[in-house]
Each structure stands twice: as C-alpha cells, then as structure tokens.
Structures
1.
Amino acid sequence: MSVSGEMASRGPAIQPTRSPGKTTLERVPTYRTRPFASMDLMGRTACPPYGLAVYRVAGDRLGHNWTKADRAKLETAAARFVESTDGVTPIIDVAKLAKGMAVASVIPATLLIGPLAGTTAVATATVLDAGSWKLSLGLPGRSAPQDQEERVRALLGAVNHLIGTVQADYRAVTVLVDGLDRIAREETTRELFVESTLLGSLESQATVMTGSVMLRRAGLAGRVRRFEAKVLANAPVLDLKDPTRDGSGIAFLSDVYGQRVGARGVGAFPSQLLSQVARCSGGRVREFVRMIRLVAERMWDLDEAVATQPAVDAAIDERRRLAEMGIHEGHIEVLRGVIETKTLPDSDLVPQLLDRFWLLPYPNDSEWYYPHPLLTMKRM
C-alpha cells in the first residue's frame, strides 16, 4: 500500500503477518469514517466502531440485509461496555448508531476505517450516545479490560461475525485504520499494541494501521504483537552525504506528480521547478501536493498554462513563513546540532520538533534526521 508523507513521518505503519488467501483489492469497496473516538483509544474496547462501519458499508454499498440475529449479537456484546447513569439497563440500537456515523465513499480499493482519533472523550459521547449511556473508549485513568475477559472475547466474536458474513457472501475485507499515530501516551500505546492482540485478531483479509508515534519514541515497535511493524520515513529529498544536494526522493515525488496529473498535465510543470518544490516539501507527500496546488492557483489567476519560477518561489516562500512560526532559539540550537550529527538529539524539544515537522526522518541503511529544508533557507 502507499501511505502519505504525513502518515509516514508521524509514526510506524503496521501491517499483518498473515494473509489468508489472495484477493483482488480493486473489487473491494472503500469507505472512510469521520472521527468518533477519544484521542487515546483503548484497543480492547475499540471493536464497536469497526463493527458499525462494516454494518453500514455492507448495507449501503452491497445492499446486504442484516438479520435481527446479526444485529443482536453486536448489540448484546457492546452493551456490556456501556455505563448507565440512571440505573436503566442500556439498550444499543446498532442500526441507529450505524446510520448516524459519517461515512463517505473514497476509492474502490479497500474497506477503510479511520481516522479513529478525535480530540476528547466528549467526541465519543457525541456519536456513540443513545440517551443516558455512552461507550467509554479510552478514557484516561481507566484500566483497560483484558483480552481474555469473556465480554471482550464476545465483542470480538460479534465483530468478526459481521466481517465473516461480508467475506462469505460478497468479497474480502481489508481494514485500514488511520489516526492512531496521534496517540501521545506511552501507557495507551503499550496497552493497544503490546499488551493486547485484539486488533490483530480481526478476521479481515488484512488489517493495516498507522501506529502511535510512541512506538518509536518509547522503543516499543519491536514488541508489537500480531502485526509487523514498518517504520516509514519521508521521501529522501536530501542526499545523506551532502544534504545541500538533491536525494533520490526527488524522482519519487516527481513520479507522484506524474501519476496524479497524467500525461496531459506533465508539461504544465517544468522538471527543474518540480524538483525545487519536491525538495522544499521535505519529502512529505502532503506538503508536496499542497505546494503544487499553491503554484497552480497562482497560474490560474494569471491565466497561464505552465508554471513559472516566480510562481514557484512565491508558493515556497508562503510555506516557509508558515513553517517558521513559533520556532525559537532553543529549537534552532538543537537543529544546528542535527545538521552536524544527522542523528536524533538528546533533547526535551525533540517531540516538538518532530510533531511540527521541523525535524524530519529520512531512510537509508539507518534512519537519519535533518531540519526541514524550509527552515534552512533563511533561519539557519
């Protein structure tokens, strides 16, 4: 699969170690759900959103008519995780909850479920709320239920029943989960990826997810269970031996541009200017695409068909000024040290530098680091 530059730079991506059979992924419908869970999602109670998404997708896109027994199995299992505030036995209506989910069709490739990360526990209650109860997913301070608990196994079985029904009656399901890279608590990361195997027990054709950035920072990537951890760095637009020269990532991003615009659009962006934009993006695909769009907007206003040097310079300068906002002398001092060592520094400022993309990882024989090219233009 391909991943965006932002996904790659924020944390490891996780891929399954097993793949039961071959499937043509182009035949599988793709959906993306809107944020509906708390930022620090606990994996052992994360199954209801997956089940709801499968329920909704199968009904909307495949025309599947779920039976009462199908619904009851998930409703009964999920209700065991519901807290009641008025003493009334909670009742979950799967059909109603699934209908209330914001689901949008993307491209015909896979069943994509994500991002799961919202901002607070309130976001969970807003979507997964039915009167006086709410599902408590990943609330700070709460102990997570264990994988071997009967209610956890029942919930996993209910979700796998829905997945199995779709795969038996229609086609294989691949689950892609985006947003878990935003988990910032080591404790939650450990519970979700190291201590629990629940997400790796989904019986989809494959499950791929972005991993918490703490897998890298806390050295937990090698202890992930049921998944194979893949560390994805940015496209190496800088040369390791001489970062003032272009790296091999320039060609990669140029190819990304060609794939996006097709043969008719290749001539609209001279190769030299395209390489300049690729380098200044820092190897982040999302930043690269954003810069291309800025240039295109300027050329549209000028009624010109081909990108020009002034338009590219203006777009880069706009992104440079934004990138420099908030950086102080302490940040700059650490980044200057990275220029010399190309390694991750021992500094309390490192999380800020990485989260704000002021410090970027690049792949070679071993991962190396360098300040964002936009920062080296004037501030450094």
2.
Amino acid sequence: MARLSLPSTKGRDLLARDLARADERPLGWCVVDWASEAAIALADRLVDAWGPGLCYQGGVPWSPARARAAVLPPSAVSKMLQVARIRLWWSDDDMVDRERAMESIEHGCLPLQVTHTEAERAVPDSDPLCALLLRASGSGPLPALSDVEVRARLDAVATTLTSGLLERVLDPADG
C-alpha cells in the first residue's frame, strides 16, 4: 500500500532519538490510514477510550486501493504524524505491517497495530514486536495505555531500532 507521508532521510540514531521524545508531543494518538470501515471503527473506539486524537483517512473506501487518491499532500500528513505520540491502525493479523510501522517511526510516532486478543495468535512478551502490538477484542473499548507503558514501548522500539534488530524482525523474508 502506498504511503501517505513524506519519506525520511534520517539515520537510525536520529530516528531513535526522536522516538524517545515522542511522549513530549502535544497529541496523544492519531489514525493516519487509507479510508476503510476498520479505520473508521478504530478511530471511533479510540475517541471513546483514549479521548480526542487526530484522524485522517485518505481516499474513499469503495474505491480500489490502487485508484485511491489522498486529498492531503504528503507534507501535511507528515506534520500530523510529527505531533502525535502514537499512531494506531487495525489489522486482523499479528504480522506487524512493516510499511506503517516504519512510516510511523520515521516521524517519531510509536507505531501500534491493534489486533485480536486470541491466545493462539499471541506474540510472546520476549518478542521485540510485542511493543508494536496492542491486543483488543473486535468490539468494545480499547485498553488505554498508561504513561509508563507508553514510555516502556517507546524505549523498546528505540532500542531495537538503534541496534538494527527492528528492521530484521519486521522483514518477513528474514522470519
């Protein structure tokens, strides 16, 4: 899927430093995604459980993904990502979406893929991807993250980014 924002030219260390300071940002969360029923439902649930945030959904859900056009330019979407602490998206899969995760990290956001809580699909806590997943049922409130948990996830992602491990665990060809 095509990205909505501008790509970053920063190196790993600068990205990790920006990520480590994400909890200083004025906006708690954002959903920046292509328009879909899942993205709409996620944003609705986030407002109920986490309070106000920012939501931008490019294109129209009834159009094929390749034919969708984002209304906002990539520079505007980049600015949205640069003011949010956390970027969330819904997935039916536990395989973290590498493109969305890296796009988020490039803008200093903690990437969180919201996925099902099914035990047989759970990622072990020792897995570096654990910091990128938020388990939730298909409906109902989303568990809000405490400041301590956000900080722990930011630190975990920044550490694995600096070491180069993050790219390796996000690359399905290496798994």
3.
Amino acid sequence: MYLSLIYLNKMKISLIIMGISLLCHSMYAQTDKSDEDQILDLILLTAVSKDCYYSDTIFVETEKFKPFFDSDVFSEQTALIGLDTTMLAEISNNTKHYLKNEKWDISSFNNVGSFAKIRFLDKDEFKAKNLNTKNRKNLFITISMPLFNTKRDHCVVTIIFSQWKNSFYAHSIFAKKVYGKWVILLEFDFVLS
C-alpha cells in the first residue's frame, strides 16, 4: 500500500509539471514560428496530451499526405453558422496546390519531446515500423498538408492515428489563428477502422 501511495504522488507531480509546461508552451512557443510549424506543434501537443500515458513511443511521418476538403460537406457536417463561404472555398481550392514529397520541417520542433518519446520517420521507415510493430503501445501519426485560406487565418488539417497494423482512426481539424496563435475550433470527419 505504501508503494502505491508513492506511485500516486509521483503521478500527481508529473501531471502538474506537464500541465505547467503545456501552459508555458502555449503562451510562448508560437510567437516566432511559421504557421505550419505552429500547427504541427498544436497537433502533436494535442496528441501527446491525449495519449501520453498510453503510448510508449509516438512515431510521426515527416511526409505530408494530400488532403481532401469539400466546403459543402463541411458545412453540412458541422452546421457552423456565420462562416464566410468564400473562405471555405479558398481552403477547398488549395487542395490543388499539393506538392508530392513535401515534408514537415522538424528542425524547429523540440517542445513535446520532453513529454513523450517522439520519433520523426520518413515515409519508408514509417511504413516498415508500422507494419512490423508488435507493441500496441506505439502510436503512429500521419498529418496532411495544412490547407489555408488566402489570409492564412483559417486552416484545415487531417490527422491519421494508428496503433496496430490494419487499424486506424482519423479526423480533421478546423483551426483559426487568434492573436497570432492557432486554436482548434472544431474536430470533424471522424473515421474509425
């Protein structure tokens, strides 16, 4: 019983430290980074905060995949009122600007590494690791190219999570830049396999 109390106290302390670190990160980390770097930070911080204690290692594919976004389907699914239709059309049109083999710039990324074991892998390494894993506590994340509107203050990104071969879940996020910082407004397009 004494050991379980020690374990609980250590867990509480680590959660408090993690919360303080996340707060500091959200206050200062996004000021001098590009929009794409800020979105990568936001996505990975969200993934780590949800899956930190359930995952041994988080593997992130460095190559961006081609996103899909249909503004009409988005409007029907989310029922958000008051969104500018031209802004949604701009985001939808930006799927044409996809560049094959475009990669995430991970050189500026170092914030989440202290919370979880995050490994960035290229496409071939990522596939090999995902297919050959026997550890269900590994989390594999693939992130699409962000789709911005012309003002670059709204964004849609699709994220695919996998913990086991032939099994995945995915969703898209709709984010907005508020006072220079990206905030997730909505998660939509959920898929589960």
4.
Amino acid sequence: MSIDFTALDSIGKTTGTPLATDTQQGTIAPTALRELDLVRREQESARRICAVYQENTKKASALLGEILKGLKQGEVLPALFLKAMECLSLLTGDAVVYLQSKEDLYNIYGRGQKDPATLKLELAEVKDRLAMLTRPELINGQTTPEVRQRIKRAIAEHRDLAEQLERDIAQRAN
C-alpha cells in the first residue's frame, strides 16, 4: 500500500483553473465565485487604503518642511501649530485631531485670550471662505431659491465674523 503525495506538489501553485469546479459540468461553484469576489474586493480595498496612506505621508512630509521653514522665517506660532496638528492628523488618519485643534485654538487663544496672531489667522481663513461664497457662479448659478438663501445667510455671517475679528485685532493693538 502506498500513499499518493502528488496533490501536495500543486499546493501554492496556480494552474489557471478555478479552485472549486463541478467536474461533471465544468463550472465554478457559486461559493468559490463568492470567495473569489470577496478576495478581489479586499485586495482593492487594501490598494485604496495604501494609496491614501501614501498620499497622506507625502502631504505630512511637505507640511514638516513648511513647519521647519516657518520656524526659520519667524512664522507665527499658531500657524505652525496648526500645520503640526494637520501633519499629525494625516499620519494618524484621524481628521478630527486637526479640526478639533483648530477650533480650540480659535476659541481659546483667539476669541478667549484675544491673541492677535490667532485672530489674524482666523480672519484670513474667514476671508478666504467669504471669497469662495461670493463667487458670481455660486450666487447666480442654477440653484434653488432655498440654496441661494442659505448662501446669502452664510455670506452675512462670514462678514459679521470678519468684522468682529477685525474689531478684536484693532482693540488688542490699542
């Protein structure tokens, strides 16, 4: 009596034939198709995750360079802090870290302690958003009256916030 080990030779080798076939019909079993589809989706998901990680690593490296350059050029600390938090956010994959840090910085150091550098940083961001909101194609674009009304409210709120920040900066300067 001898044992046939020929099947062991084919382990790990692809032969180009499906894994689970119905030998009488020559078709792939439905469970094998589902397994194959699952493996393909997992591989695609892994590729997307890897691509995002690589992109985030590139952005983080660029931010690190900006931080070091900003330190040498005397850039204001709140701006450098936000870049550092964005860098950490990218490396950890946690966007909330950056958003929460920015909100806390503006609320505590800007509005709370009236730090001029932080107020100016927030003012620049508010003005950038206001410029985007007041683009003609956005206001006069093909939108519903409800959307136009929301845009107008957002513009008014941004203008009010910009004026308040400017008053706070002027008050702190005196």
